[in-house]
Amino acid sequence: MVDSVYRFRSTNALLDGFHELQNQEIYFASPTELNDPLEGYKDLSWIGDEIAWKNLLRHYLLCLMQAILRTLENGPNYQVTPETLPVEMIDEDLQHEVRKVFDEICTRVFGDPELALLPGLLAEHSSRMSRNELLSLLWPIHSRLFTLVCTSLQPEHPIHAIDASFRERGSNPLRLKESFAAFKALSEEHTNSTDIVEAMTSRMVSGIVQTMFILKFNEANQQHDAAWRIIASTFPEIYLNSLDRLLYSDWYTACFVAKPSQAAMWGHYGDSHSGVCLKFKTSALSSGLPALTLRHLVGTCGSSKNMKPVYKFGPLELHEVRYQDRYAELDFFRSLGKLTHRQLAFWFRGDNGVFSKTGMDLMQESVEWRQAYWENFHNAVTTKLKDWQYEQEYRITVQSSADCSDGTSRKLQYRFEDLQGIIFGMKTSTQDKVEIVRIIQEKCKGTGRSDFVIYQTEYSRRTGRIEISSWDLVKLV
């Protein structure tokens, strides 16, 4: 177990910018604020029975209908993104008249001779379907689904986005049986069929990304049609990117490292060597794993009408980041643990009221499933590609279902006794050092500490590396 961990910060964050040093706070960042674009990446795959697949398609139709309705309400400049899609909505959330329209849409879609085959064909698919495979399937059927939804919403005056060429594409034969038969033959003929299919479908994804860029590039001249072009052309990609929100609550992390002397780390995270590095003392959990004591949310108190959060100091585990060649697959249908039983019923209840075998573990919340569910989460948020292994990172992760967008609730307080020392960068200004030492001195006097250590990084001509030495002459008490 590591006895100490280190956290790089800019002097702006510690001092006048956010007063982290004075307040003894650690900021927990959202995944989008971190520099790895694959933070928390989940390599989703799909395998399920006919009920699960049919309800996935119903969910697709529900999100598509809502995107169209919101564009009609807010105008063609409405932003259709993975974040604005109402993925947590189910049919029971719709107003009565809108739900009648949605039911009609589903009747029309699954009454279509070709589309009616799709849930069964997907259920018979012998292997897990990757994101690229699913996208390559949704892409060609989207024209027909979009046309059916639009003409159901406005049967008398179809939405103008459905032009003649789009209607023609929607009426083209889908050849679903032939496509699935080809995939099956490929898997029987080639031992590496999975890699072949992934290569084929990834080319389609590349085409979609390029199409999205072209649409964005042309928006300057066609701004009045922006939302409709996005819905008509790139909705399948947006939809799949939104599904991650159904699996786990929002999570935030504070990052630490095992060693503070790497020049590259100071350059990346230590404000180009002008920042500082905080040294924290760790404690040991009963499991033997390292932890840092922070003031965090432990529950609520009060009446149902006046609930108040309860915060206490307690140890939070420091998870060691694992560096691997690839991310582990995550079974989408069996990872919907964030949803309520009411929402799960939408996903796993069939037309005749029978529940899907795919979702049985979720509905029953078996111990084995729950354990695997959280293991998958921690694996996802503590796995990075091997390109990052030089960081030797540890992290603490917290979750919240509340809106934490302002960042205030994501500042957790640490005990001053756990801050062992502070390391100045090679370019940290003298003025910043003076301000930091003054704050530390006041805290040491207030607590009677005499063991706080101040360090300085410097280049060692002898070793050819960045070295850290303590300031023995600076007395804080």
Overall 3D shape: elongated
Number of domains: 2
SS-derived structural category: alpha+beta
Mean pLDDT: 89
Compute the separation of the termini in Å.
31 Å
As a percent range, the share of strand residues is 15-25%
Kindly report the spatial arrangement of strands forming the biggest sheet.
1-6-16-17-18
* Tally of DSSP helical segments: 15
Q: Any idea what the radius of gyration is?
A: 27 Å
Which residues form runs of ≥5 with pLDDT under 50? none
Fraction of residues in helix: 40-55%
Largest sheet: 5 strands, mixed
Number of strands: 18
Characterise the protein shown here:
By secondary structure, this protein is an alpha+beta fold. The chain folds into two domains: 4-39 and 250-321 and 382-470, no CATH class; 43-246, no CATH class. Helix content is 41%, strand content 20%. It contains 15 helices and 18 strands. The chain has helices spanning 11-14, 20-23, 50-74, 96-111, 118-124, 131-153, 164-171, 176-189, 193-217, 226-242, 263-269, 341-348, 360-364, 367-381, 430-447; strands at 4-9, 25-27, 43-46, 129-130, 250-257, 276-281, 283-284, 290-301, 308-317, 319-320, 322-324, 329-331, 383-385, 393-400, 411-414, 419-424, 453-460, 465-470. The strands form five sheets. It has a five-stranded mixed β-sheet with strand order 1-6-16-17-18. Strands 2, 7, 8, 9 and 15 form a five-stranded antiparallel β-sheet that branches. A hairpin with a 4-residue loop joins β17 (453-460) and β18. The longest helix has 25 residues, at 50-74. It is elongated, with a radius of gyration of 27 Å.
